[in-house]
Amino acid sequence: MEKLKKNGSQIKSNKTSRTSLSKSTMTETTESIADSSRADTISRISSRRDSFFLIDRRISEEESQRRYSWLQKTRLSIASTRNQARLIHEVKFPDTFGGLYSAKYSPKGDLIATGFGTGAIQIRNGENGEFRTTLRNGLDTSLPVLCCRFNPLYDNIFYASSGCGNIFLCMTDTNVFSRFIQEPNNEINTIDVSLDGKFIVSGGKDAALRLYDAQTAKLIHTYGRNEADLTDENDNYHRMRIFSAKFHHIYENLIITGGWDDTLRIWDRRVDSGSIKVMKGPHICGDAIDVRDTKIVTGSWVVRGSLQLWDMTTAKLIETIVPENRPTSLDGEFIYAVQYFDGDPYGEHVLAGGSGTGALEVINIKDKKVVGNFEVSKAIMTIDSNRSSIIYGGMESVLRLADFS
Q1: How far apart are CA 311 and CA 67, in angstroms?
Q2: What is the DSSP string of 59-121?
Q3: What are phi and psi of 15, to 5 degrees?
Q4: Neighbouring C-beta atoms of residue 120, cutoff 10 Å
Q5: Reduced to 3 states, what is the DSSP secondary structure of residue 365?
Q6: Which of 38, 81, 246, 255 is least surrounded by Cβ atoms within 10 Å, i.e. has the fewest?
Q7: Least confident segment among 2-11, 57-66, 140-149
Q8: If pLDDT is split at 50, 70 and 90, which confidence band does 228 have?
Q9: What is the rounded distance in angstroms from the CA atom of residue 82 to the CA atom of residue 68?
Q10: Angle of helix 2-62 relative to helix 64-76, nearest 10 degrees?
C-alpha cells in the first residue's frame, strides 16, 4: 500500500515537473516569438521610414521649383519684406527745370523722352538716363510739357503735349521738333497714340476728348458737351478736366479716360455720340490709368483706397487694392501715376507713385503686397517701364532708373 502511495506521489511529482517544464518551454517560445515579432516590426518601421525619406527626397527634387516659389511668397508675407527692386541710376538735372512731368521709353527701350516744368523737351539714353540732346529749350515763363508718347510703329517719332495747348512732333533721328497740333485756350494734360499708329487722342482743361489723324494732324472728332447750350445735360461726356487717356492695347478702337469729375469712361472712336460706358469713383489727377486685357487699373488722388481695379466688360469695380504690408502714414496716398509693370506678362504687378506714400511702389495686386519700394522726398509725377526696367521722377530734380526682376 505504501509502495503504491510512493509510486503515486512520484507520478504526481513527475507530472508537476513535466507541467512546469512545459510552461517554461512555452514561455521561452512565446518570448522568442515576441522578440522575433518586435524585430520584424522594427525592421518594417525602419524600412518604411527609410522609404518615406527616400520618397520625400525624391518629391523635394521634383517639386523644388514649387517649394522655392512658396518660400518666396512666405518671405513676402513678412512686414519687413526684402526689397526685390534695385535702384540703378540717379541722373540729376538743374532745379531751374521746374521738375519732371513726363518720361517715356521708346518702343525698343533705348531712348527716353522727357518733358519738364519749364517746357523743355529732352532725349536721354534708355540704359542710364544720361542726356543726349535738347529738342526744345524751356523758359521760366513757359508752361510744362505734361505728356510724352512714342508712335508704336516708328521708334524715331514721339509726341509731346503742353500746358500751352500745343502738341509737338519730335524726331529722334534728326533731333528736330515742330508744332503739330494747336488747341487754343486749352491745356493738354494727356495724349496717347493708337496701337496701329494712325490716331492721336488728347484731353485737358476744357474736358473735351479729341481724336486726330496721326499723319496729317487733322481733327477727326471732338467728344464734348456743348458749352454754349447751358441746358445740355448729356452725361456721355466729361464735365471737368481730363488727366489721363489711353488707347486699348488690343482693341484699338477703344479709349479709356478719367479726370476731375470722378468718372472713368470708355469710348469707341466709331461712336460719335459719347462714351459707351461709365464707371463712377476714381478721382484722376495725372497719368493714372492703365489697361491690361479687360482689367483697368486706376490711381486716385485721395487719402485712402487710391488703387482700384475695374472690369471694362461689366463697367464695375472689381476691388480696391490695399497692400497688407504698406505702413500707415498720416500723409495719405494721393496717387498721381499708375502703370501695369511691363516686365510682368500676367498683369499681376503695377507701379504707383504720388505725393502721399513717399515712394515709388511695385505692388503685387494679386497678393496685395508691396514687393518693391523706392523712397523719394517729393511728389512722383511720371512712371514708365520697359521689360524689367523702370523710370520715374517728379518734383525732385532727378530722373531715377531702377530694375525689378
Answers
A1: 33
A2: HHHHTHHHHHHHHHHHHHTSTTPPP-EEEEEEEE--GGG--EEEEEE-TTSSEEEEEETTS-E
A3: -60, -45
A4: 22
A5: coil
A6: 38
A7: 2-11
A8: low
A9: 16
A10: 70
d(CA 296, CA 247) in angstroms, rounded, equals: 12
Give the phi and the psi of residue 363 in degrees, each rounded to 5: -120, 130
Confidence of residue 75 (pLDDT cuts 50, 70, 90): very low
Task: At 152, list the grid cell.
Answer: 508704336
Cell numbers that stand for 227 in this block: 458749352
Same domain, 223 and 270: yes
* Co-location of 117 and 9 in the same domain: no
Domain that holds residue 324: 88-404
The letter for the amino acid at 230 is L
User: For the chain, what is the domain count?
Assistant: 2
Among 402, 345, 328, 369, CA closest to 75: 369
Q: Please measure the distance between the N-terminal and C-terminal CA atoms of the chain and give it in whole angstroms.
A: 111
3-state secondary structure 272-341: CCCCCEEEECCCCCCCCEEEECCEEEEECCCCCCCEEEEECCCCEEEEEECCCCCCCCCCCCCEEEEEEC
Helix (H) or strand (E) segment spanning residue 41: helix 2-62
CB 269 within 8 A of CB 228: no
Which cell numbers hold the place of 360? 515709388
Q: How far is residue 309's CA from residue 295's CA, in Å, rounded to a whole number?
A: 7
Q: How far is the CA of 357 from the CAs of 147, 277, 306, in angstroms?
A: 23, 31, 11
Same domain, yes or no, for 220 and 287?
yes
